[in-house]
Design a protein that fits this description.
Largest sheet: 6 strands, mixed
Helix content: 10-25%
Oligomer: single chain
Number of strands: 16
CATH superfamily: Carbon-nitrogen hydrolase
Strand content: 25-35%
Structural class: alpha/beta
Number of domains: 1
Radius of gyration: 17 Å
Bound molecules: acetamide
CATH class: Alpha Beta
CATH topology: Nitrilase/N-carbamoyl-D-aminoacid amidohydrolase
Length: 260
């Protein structure tokens, strides 16, 4: 299975420009699955819901429609973060769309810092999708710091964790190596690059998008600033064997009676 991530620098408030860049960078991408960053069509650093309104989309609206078109055009599944509005609520959401038309929406469970003032906490619960011969699991950025996110997805059978991110802290890339090892899964973290300013606020994103394998090897990693599509071939079946030694099964050996 040929999987990749698109690392780029979305421009705050400039949806058209962002969609054009995504469309162009994914042209002839020759992948089965490509993961894009969190909120990659709108930018991230909003100050109010008023600013978010015109950039938001429903789960069957213009932004999912855009990704569906690209998925069909390139014959690849796409996972991407976008700004979802449902009734009066804004969600920091992630769409999975396959060339077959299968679509899943995941709403970020763990909101980070000022997102708590702008978004509703995700109410979808963790989601998986069967795609080709693999099972995908979905997570958004700060979900990484709660090992329960990756564990829940892995217990449900996910073999490839598709992680859309707008990272500002320097820890996640290292932590995702551990998420791979402790769940014996592949992870694809698609982070963004660049600096956003809005009034007096400023954030710089850390890049270094990466793909890790079930042994914690980094198969490919971007640098801190480049805009790039990086792709590798993986065998998702490797993630199905949860035996760590002949006598240790990663999930069956858990002692749940001693856990909080
Ligand atoms: C983050 O969750 N965007 C850090």
């Amino acid at each position: 299975m040929r999987v990749g991530f698109l690392q780029f620098n979305p421009q705050l408030f400039h949806e058209k420009q962002n969609l054009n860049k995504i469309s162009k960078m994914l042209q002839n991408c020759n992948t089965d699955l490509v993961v894009l960053p969190e909120l990659c069509t709108s930018g991230y650093l909003f100050k109010s819901n008023i600013e978010m309104e015109s950039l938001s989309s429903t789960a069957d609206g213009r932004i999912p429609g855009f990704f569906k078109n690209i998925s069909e055009r390139e014959n690849t599944a796409i996972v991407a973060g976008f700004l979802e509005k449902d009734e009066e609520l804004f969600f920091n959401s992630q769409i999975f769309v396959a060339p077959s038309g299968n679509q899943v929406i995941y709403r970020k469970t763990h909101l980070f810092f000022n997102e708590k003032d702008l978004f509703s906490p995700g109410n979808s619960g963790f989601k998986i999708a069967h795609y080709n011969d693999a099972i995908l699991g979905f997570m958004v950025c700060f979900d990484w710091i709660f090992p329960e996110s990756a564990r829940t997805l892995s217990l449900r059978g996910a073999e490839i964790l598709c992680h859309s991110a707008n990272l500002v802290l320097p820890f996640c890339q290292k932590a995702m190596i551990t998420r791979s090892i402790e769940n014996h899964v592949f992870t694809i973290t698609s982070n963004r690059v660049g600096t956003e300013t809005n009034g007096t606020q400023e954030l710089t994103f850390t890049g270094m998008s990466q793909i890790t394998d079930p042994s914690g090897n980094i198969l490919v990693r971007a640098d801190k600033t480049e805009e790039v599509l990086l792709v590798v071939d993986i065998d998702p079946e490797v993630a199905r064997n949860k035996m760590i030694t002949e006598k240790n099964h990663l999930f069956e050996d858990r002692r749940k009676e001693f856990y909080e």
